[in-house]
Design goal:
Blueprint lengths: L17 H5 L4 E3 L5 E2 L13 E3 L20 H4 L14 E6 L3 E6 L10 H14 L4 E5 L3 H13 L2 E7 L4 H9 L3 E5 L3 H11 L4 E2 L6 H7 L1 H9 L7 E5 L4 H15 L8 E7 L4 H8 L25 H10 L3 E5 L1 H12 L7 H8 L1 H8 L5 E4 L14
Parallel strand pairs: 5-13, 6-7, 6-9, 7-8, 10-11, 10-13, 11-12
Antiparallel strand pairs: 1-2, 1-3, 4-5
Helix pairs in contact: 3-4, 3-7, 4-5, 7-9, 8-9, 12-13
Bound molecules: zinc ion.
Length: 388
Amino acid sequence: MGDEEPGAQRPVGPRGSPEHAMTRLELTCERCHRPASPVAWQCPRCQGPLTLASWPAFALHLSDDDHTLWRYGPLLRVPRNVSLGEGFTPLVPCTVPPYGHFLAKLEFLAPTGSYKDRGTAVLVNHLVAHGVTEVVEDSSGNAGASLAAYAAAAGIEATIFVPAHASPAKKGQVAVFGARLVEVPGPRAAAAEACRRAAQQAVYASHAWSPLFLLGQMTVAWELWEQMGGTLPDAVVCPLGQGGLLLGLWRGSLALREGGFASRLPRLYGVQAAACDPIVRAWEAGADAPLPVREGETVAEGVRIAAPVRGREVLAALRATAGGALRVEEHAIVDAQRALARRGLFVEATSATAVAALPAVRRLVGPSAQIVVPLTGSGLKQGHWGDS
Ligand SMILES: [Zn+2]
């Protein structure tokens, strides 16, 4: 065996052992295609985002008695050492006037109240398998709370950088799990910058950068396929910040098609607040990369991302699925959140962006199309509940 490539993966088990087989996920740079360390957050050479050397195709190797996302464990190829019961959220038909009928995937019922637990669970188990004992992350709240919970369960230390303007309920949730909470004044991007400096000393468990996070998010597409009797919906509409949910849906759908379980992909629609809409602007301009925007204030704090790390990939996914990107105004987000609550679905404002865009999506996909909306985060996280 020659000199080991710097950053090359070191398997934790002896070659050929089951442990080795479960941890052989290899990371490579999306831009220069060089291999990277399994605990790296970006390419050390070109600073590009990392990807998996191979993404799974769907197969029916399911554990029928496991009603968590670890049902797909053989496809994920990450050993489960820590679980809080993530995955297998309900899919319920609902009608919300005046937004019409859709299937709601209740992602806010995840262990920490947001869809992020899928990606975090897979990422943390991957890092634990590689001996990581300390992680840092930046977040507007949900990803930080999720990482804090899984770090607590795994017995590793977490430091979470949040913008000072994040909701007190989310900051409290980060702290209650025992993570170190660092509040950073200024825009959301300032918290990311502070975290990247800290990442020189600890492992950056980034929901925006890590392909392991996307791997976990693929499971939402697989669950939809199972819950819909072996089919995928015509369209899925979701909030769009970094794009982790949308990219997970895309990769998960591709895996189903590659495995021969679906003939077409759902049309994917990403929704941004008009106050911070870099992907929508790029979509409208026909650009391949997000356009620069000012990070404006919005009630939808989870999508307040001016420069999404994987923006190019998000735009490619929208094009490949004949979907699109849409913006919604603040009053429309608040109206949709209130309408959902009056139907018994209490979600945070970020989640309501997708529902606010439903009338526009329906005009694009037709009145009879089957639309799924993942309701991404609990309203209890917001801490202030408007005038209702
Ligand atoms: Zn590179």
